[in-house]
UniProtKB/TrEMBL annotation:
Positions of the Endonuclease/exonuclease/phosphatase domain: 54-274
Identification of the protein by name: Endonuclease/exonuclease/phosphatase family metal-dependent hydrolase
Pfam family membership, one: Exo_endo_phos
Signal peptide region: 1-28
Top-level division of the source organism's lineage: Bacteria
Amino acid sequence: MAARSYRFLRRTLAVGCLLAAAALPATRPTVPPTVIADATDAPQPTVLRMLQLNLCNSGRAGCYTGRAMARAAEVITAEAPDLVTLNEICAGDLSALHGVFQTVHPGRTVVAAFQAAGDRPSGDDTRCRNGQRFGIGLLTHVRTSATPHTVYAGTHPTQDLADPEERAWLCVDVDGALLACTTHLSATGYRIALTQCDHLLDTILPTISRDAGDEPTVLGGDLNLRAGHDPDVRSCTPPGHQRIDDGRLQHITATTDITLCCRELVPMHGATDHPGLLVTLTIGPSRRPA
């Protein structure tokens, strides 16, 4: 259903938890009121590996090689990330990578979400050369299919009117534990990319997070902005947020309740014009009451 201000698209799907706090013992010893419980009873942080990929797979751009999907499958198989954010893909690419992702996470339920970029001239979705919808996607895994999650998606309110492609954003809220998001910002107007970044990080994502109970939030994507350049991507990164980049245009940012570390650039061997960006997220400990 569309929200009034941001054209949010929501749908609730029956999937299980993405994250779970460490299980407490089935029985606990009785502790006198004046004694503090042992620290091992405290919820433990959750550690996830996240991979950002821009596959340039529309078939229309100069960076298209026809080899990006095969290389993406190799990287996912080798690295087994828990969360993958995908830019410049066709809808069918997400379905294909869903199968690869499921193979490296046997016994888990895979969550896949896609959001097409808009096409201003037609009022429809932007299309890949093969006719499929073109846009962004996200993959993650959960324990079971029993618990619903929510997908939020939309197009940025500011667009480059000289570019027929209307840039989009996408988030998955899984069991109230993590808001995982991706976007692909304007490549034809860097000032417009900065405006899109500002609005996404300062308005859209905090609004969704608040509505969901102040969830930890992570964003991965090709922002088409660099650190140390004009405009500088750091000017749209909220105070206290962490940010890791690939040295160029891809970035992963996280709210203050997530720690980012251990950046690794994964070579794509010329299959696309961006490396894979792999980081580790440490979330928590959970703020939920025991």
